[in-house]
Amino acid sequence: MNRQQQRDAVRAALAAGPRERGTVQQERAGFEAFGTARPLAPGVTAGEVTVAGRPAVRLQAGTSRTVLLYLHGGGYVVGSGRTGARLASALIARTGGTAYSLDYRLAPEHPFPAAADDALAAYRELLQTTAAEDVLVAGDSAGGGLAVTTLVAAREAGLPQPAAAAVFSPWTDLTLSGDSIRTRAAADPLFTAAALRWYADHFTPEPAAARAASPIFADLSGLAPLLVQVGSDELLLDDAVRLATRAAADDVEVTLEVGTGLPHVYQLNFGDLDDADDALDRAGTFLARKLPATAGASKIPAGRSGYAEAVTVLTNPA
Q: Residue 141 catalytic?
């Protein structure tokens, strides 16, 4: 299939899913089945460990000292370290080293700030055995927003920043004030505004908590270099664009990539979608270039194209 046919197939698969939310238990079961159905990146081994008292999936790709903390998506209500392992494996396969896909606590049993507390505790523990310059942070959707929240919390706690961070379709505004929630409603094959509200209400039942949990409203100064990737056909487009704008205004080195005609966390479809493979190649290169020269090098397969024609890239180098 050509690129457009691949995109159409991904959109059709997403659109075939239910648009209405079920019970929390039903949503968790469905997301777990979806998130663990496809294999990890080739050459990556996995095992179960504990990080800062929470379960995690440890993913190994070579002997580099690079360590990646990965935070899964799922609206803070569904998902696990296992569902995050696929994307984490794709990143660590490209940088080399070890990734930890964290199983942070979920709402409604554990509303904000439980997930943020778990992510910061995990980052703090990883720093006990790994220099910050060898640590990377990444996440998708809610986990992308949580990754940025973790960097802010680390700064506030006096901890050093990681070498870099990458976020895919990050959910950064739980107040749901982004214009794209309305303007991209017809284009998004996965989410509705009501679905986003369902997740937000479970994680942040109080309006003040919704704003506090949204890194779009935080002071981002002093954060690590940041890569933001998002599809143009998703409700959370503005969450990513405004995050990059805010980061640039706060003098953070930030790169924003908008994939034209692509849906939420399209990177999950690597192996079936050339746009996803290209995006992950660029993410791997971005992260690897921020690491010390001796820590690891990008392992992008030879012959890969640099930038897909469907991506608009905006940079703000510090």
A: yes
